[in-house]
């Protein structure tokens, strides 16, 4: 089978249009003869992957800068969707031909992946299969953060940083489902206009205006005291600025550090303002609270089927174009999700 293999740590982006096994300089190669994974147990299921999502964590993992560092070589990739290809003798929940989605620690950047039946979710009618492959990590992160951890309620003010990215865009939509007043921060006219089209209550273009001044003006006009929940996948200077907007008793959701700069949250101010700081490493829930993840993804799939949330895919690539896909993540070109379509010959570099 075809599989994308990380053979050494380094930057997977390049100016090349495609990669191959002959690439000696790239940390990733496209193997066309990788062994097809076999069923590991009676309850194992093999899935022919339809689409797999790129997340910033995948990029960091290949760089060697992620908190989990798998031994080399490895096949990257986390969330995916596809069709059940083979089932073990003890499988009772699925059958060959079923549409499923899931996530894994590694391995989805390949034509086939094996998982236990308990780890797979049926994709409901009305939910596009490719879109389902973009749902678990990005929307799962935001759902667990906002619904499970912050317990966001109707009327609360939610401030989303990096709102046009994969997790940011999911947070914006989940915030609206919860009935929150949503403020989104992004960079550039195109991203701002897209966020406005989703019905976001207020959008700040951080490349042109002061986040603090813009948000304060909006809050004053709406007679709101401040931000109740800060959703932060960015870090750095933007986090520091945003803390000036937080209400007494506000909650800070630490999602990631796309800026490359880990912010300092002053404990003395957190004490005086009664802030709650939530660290949110979504993947660790699979070990410590798996039921929370399972319930979260099932609810999200039902929301997609009902049309409550939509999964925007801005770039789609083939496995051989993975370096370009990672470049779209690195250069922040995407509005929403970047995908790799495994069994689709139609490679669309961008819908933007």
UniProtKB/TrEMBL annotation:
Location of the Enoyl reductase (ER) domain: 22-340
SUPFAM superfamilies, A to Z: GroES-like (SSF50129), NAD(P)-binding Rossmann-fold domains (SSF51735)
Cross-referenced CDD domains: QOR1
Protein name: Quinone oxidoreductase-like protein 2 homolog
GO MF term list: oxidoreductase activity; zinc ion binding
Domain of life from the UniProt record: Eukaryota
PROSITE patterns, sorted: QOR_ZETA_CRYSTAL
Organism annotation: Populus euphratica (Euphrates poplar)
SMART domains: PKS_ER
Matches recorded under InterPro entries: ADH-like_C, ADH-like_N, ER, GroES-like_sf, NAD(P)-bd_dom_sf, Quin_OxRdtase/zeta-crystal_CS, Zn-ADH-like_protein
């Amino acid at each position: 089978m075809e599989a994308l293999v990380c053979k050494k740590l380094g930057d997977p982006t390049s100016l090349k249009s495609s990669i191959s096994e002959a690439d000696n300089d790239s940390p990733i190669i496209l193997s066309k003869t990788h062994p097809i994974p076999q069923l590991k147990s009676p309850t194992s299921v093999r899935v022919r992957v339809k689409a797999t999502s790129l997340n910033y964590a995948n990029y960091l993992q290949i760089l060697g800068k992620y908190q989990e560092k798998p031994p080399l070589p490895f096949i990257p990739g986390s969330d995916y969707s596809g069709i059940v290809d083979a089932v073990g003798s003890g499988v009772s929940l699925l059958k060959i031909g079923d549409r499923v989605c899931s996530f894994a620690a590694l391995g989805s950047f390949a034509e086939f992946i094996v998982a236990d039946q308990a780890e797979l979710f049926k994709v409901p009618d009305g939910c596009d299969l490719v879109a389902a492959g973009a749902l678990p990590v990005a929307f799962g992160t935001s759902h667990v953060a906002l619904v499970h951890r912050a317990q966001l309620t109707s009327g609360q003010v939610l401030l989303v940083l990096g709102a046009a990215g994969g997790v940011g865009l999911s947070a914006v939509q989940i915030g609206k489902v919860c009935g929150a007043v949503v403020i989104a921060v992004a960079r550039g006219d195109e991203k701002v206009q897209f966020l406005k089209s989703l019905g976001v209550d207020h959008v700040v273009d951080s490349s042109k205006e002061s986040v603090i001044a813009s948000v304060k003006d909006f809050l004053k006009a709406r007679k709101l005291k401040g931000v109740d929940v800060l959703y932060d996948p960015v870090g750095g200077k933007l986090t520091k600025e945003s803390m000036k907007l937080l209400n007494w008793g506000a909650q800070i959701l630490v999602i990631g550090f796309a800026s490359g700069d880990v912010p300092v949250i002053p404990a003395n101010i957190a004490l005086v303002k009664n802030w709650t700081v939530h660290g949110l490493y979504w993947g660790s829930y699979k070990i410590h609270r798996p039921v929370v993840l399972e319930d979260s993804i099932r609810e999200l799939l039902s929301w997609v089927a009902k049309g409550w949330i939509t999964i925007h895919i801005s770039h789609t690539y083939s496995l051989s174009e993975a370096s370009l896909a990672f470049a779209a993540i690195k250069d922040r070109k995407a509005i929403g999700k970047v995908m790799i379509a495994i069994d689709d010959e139609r490679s669309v570099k961008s819908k933007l």
